[in-house]
Write a structure and sequence with these properties.
The chain is α+β, with helices and mostly antiparallel strands and about 230 residues long. Helices cover about 35% and strands about 30% of the residues. It is built from six helices and 17 strands. Helix 1 (about 10-20) runs antiparallel to helix 3 and helix 5 packs antiparallel against helix 6 (about 210-225). The protein is globular, with a radius of gyration of 18 Å. The two termini are about 20 Å apart.
Amino acid sequence: MMLRIENVLDKGSLDAVRRTIDAGPWVDGNETSGHQSRSAKRNRQLRQGCKEAAEAGRMVLDALGKAPEFVAAALPLKVFPPLFNRYAGGENFGAHVDNSIRQLAGSEFRIRSDLSATLFLEEPDAYDGGELVVEDLFGEHRVKLRAGDMVLYPASSLHRVTPVTEGTRTACFFWLQSMVRDDCEREQLYRLDRSVRVLTEERGPHDPVVLELTNLYHNLMRRWADA
Ligand code: NI
């Protein structure tokens, strides 16, 4: 499932994140690359683990916790500390796969990457190119969102970022391990959850059908989720 989540960061948070990361140390983006992606990647990255990355990462995680669509769709169990990258002057990231297991350097923290996320931190008209292209069996999905908006997509997909030929593309990206490993099961839960929310608005939380469907949602979670 690919999903756009709008307004993860409001204007104030967006400005605060940008101010924080703009002041930080930017290094070669291959700092966090796996073996396959190393040769494909040409960009810059805020140094992993620096205080600016930690602070901006906390702001992003805070915002994600307050984004009900994100929580409902991703059912996050463990989120890798957010990273920040920049592309300019023709930089790009060729087709690659994200590592299935991510270990945080110097720690015990490890996740299975079920979902990848890109949170755009620059308005789309401020740069040319820089589309995130995600491939599935249907073909290519090209993504370039408003600043503050985010795309969630399966970490299992082949993807790339097209060259930024004018201006600078700044984004936050991260991976997460979901409570529900299987993409299809997670999508069904999200669709059910959305429908229950609509029905709850219409009929109230004590309606028998709302109760039955809410029960069904939780019973499917019990079958499919790790906590
Ligand atoms: Ni990637």
